[in-house]
Amino acid sequence: MNILDRINETAAYLRDKVAIDKPVGIILGTGLGNLADEIENPTSIDYASIPHFPQSTVEGHDGKLIFGQLNGVEVLAMKGRFHFYEGYDMDQVVFPIRVMRRLGVQTLILSNASGGMNPDFKVGDIMILNDQINLFPTNPLIGPNIKELGPRFPDMSEPYNLNYVKALHECASDHGMKLHEGVYAGVSGPCFETPAEYKYIRTIGGDAVGMSTVPENIAAKHLGMDVAALSVITDLGIEGLVETVSHEEVQKAAQDAEPKLAAIVKSFLQKIQG
Question: Where do the structural domains in the chain lie, given as residue ranges?
């Protein structure tokens, strides 16, 4: 079965389970899954029951697709994503993005936990992504182009919708918060970065680094979607301030920042739908 057939079969299965009409897509990253608990009138479907869906193997990623309303806006949320370091190929990592587009998703909100290299950042801060650097060893668009999904050479001059960047700043200001803005570098993982790697990524223009998001964004832009993304700074890779870090500590920092992130996302949904 080719990739288009798999996408169509998965989308048909989900349409049989729930009424869907152009929802906003949301991917909830490490430690940020509790935002799903605020979705009203939810219909939750385990990844294990969805045809062709991979399974999330990372602690803090529950593996559920949730349909419902958030602040009055219809959403389709992934509670847990798939990572290249789990052993999945790029087609599997971005498969949910392609299914979302087939289900009518035009706006995609991505969230993640990341290490901050910008000296202005502190643990618990939130960064709006305005650009990205792909440091993965591959790209989800490598191979024969599937013209039904998008063009051979998609434009990446605005990977994150700049109107959305502005709107996110406004939403944060409405809540008395100030967000950072910067460039996210995506790496394969699963080990955290060495001091030399943090320095390298900062030197080439990165403000934060993580192990997700970039492939999803590339696939979304290929599909013509509008993308916004937020990153919780859960550890620091600033020269002279690199400390030992564990996945548990990353989860804890992300969970501590989650109320702020939830408030911003809910306001953002209302603003872009208003």
Answer: 3-273
Query: How many angstroms separate the CA atoms of 220 and 81, rounded?
Result: 15
pLDDT of residue 204: 98
Give the residue, 20 or 117, on which the prediction is more confident.
Answer: 117
- pTM: predicted TM-score of the whole model, two decimal places: 0.94
Contact 208, 121 (CB under 8 A): yes
Three-class DSSP labels, the chain? CCHHHHHHHHHHHHHHHCCCCCCEEEEECCCCHHHHHHCEEEEEEEHHHCCCCCCCCCCCCCCEEEEEEECCEEEEEEECCCCHHHCCCHHHHHHHHHHHHHCCCCEEEEEEEEEECCCCCCCCCEEEEEEEEECCCCCCCCCCCCCCCCCCCCCCCCCCCHHHHHHHHHHHHHCCCCCEEEEEEECCCCCCCCHHHHHHHHHCCCCEEECCCHHHHHHHHHCCCEEEEEEEEEEECCCCCCCCCCHHHHHHHHHHHHHHHHHHHHHHHHHHHC
Mean pLDDT of 257-273: 89
Interval 161-200: pLDDT, tens:
999 999 999 999 999 999 999 999 999 999 999 999 999 9
Measured CA to CA in angstroms, residue 2 lies from 6, 8, 87, 154 at distances of 6, 10, 20, 22
- The pairing of strands 180-186 and 73-79 is unpaired
Q: 97-149: per-residue pLDDT in tens?
A: 999 999 999 999 999 999 999 999 998 899 999 999 999 999 999 999 999 99
Domain covering 3-273: architecture: 3-Layer(aba) Sandwich (3.40)
